[in-house]
Design a protein that fits this description.
A four-stranded antiparallel beta sheet has the order 2-1-3-4. The protein contains seven helices and four strands. By secondary structure, the protein is an alpha+beta fold. It folds into two domains: about 90 residues; about 55 residues, CRO Repressor, CATH 3.30.240. The longest helix is centred in the middle third of the chain and has 24 residues.
């Protein structure tokens, strides 16, 4: 029973750490962050199953984590307020060509990251962004205004 309690405590600790890390961080992990999370898992395993290398202890620890993960998914799918807490909600980070810097700062989303994501979607100017949403999974979604509403002049003729 001790292993189950330890696994449950570590599960909650890992959930808190990933929530504190911020969704912009989790959307795309750097090599260092990936190594850090893998190493963290190895370090935590000693706290879950201290000096017990039996198959039973391993199965119990992994089984507890699996049951808690499945339970969390079930609760999230049946109770919307729980999903808001465990996964978060989408947040608007730019509206009508204006960056919401206070929201970006709170979500720890850097300007360079937002601009790189916009360029990846073919958006050249911040003014072309009608709405930018930081999704709960850390990805950025962009909605652009119509060409006539952007305030930009007509593009020059080709050739």
């Amino acid at each position: 029973m001790d292993i189950v309690i330890r696994a449950a405590i570590i599960f909650v600790l890992l959930w808190v750490i990933t929530r504190l890390a911020g969704r912009s961080t989790l959307g795309e992990l750097s090599s260092f962050e990936l190594i850090l999370f893998i190493t963290m898992g190895d370090l935590i395993s000693e706290g879950v199953v201290p000096q017990d290398y039996s198959a039973t202890a391993g199965i119990l620890a992994v089984g507890t984590m699996a049951v808690l993960t499945i339970s969390m998914a079930w609760v999230n799918s049946h109770w919307r307020p729980a999903a808001r807490v465990t996964h978060g909600v989408p947040v608007i980070v730019a509206k009508d060509g204006e960056l919401l810097t206070d929201v970006m700062r709170r979500e720890r989303l850097g300007l360079d990251d937002l601009l790189a994501a916009a360029r990846g979607q073919g958006i050249e100017l911040v003014g072309d962004i009608r709405l930018a949403v930081l999704e709960a999974n850390g990805q950025l979604s962009f909605f652009t205004s119509d060409g006539g509403e952007s305030g930009a002049g007509e593009p020059p003729p080709a050739g």
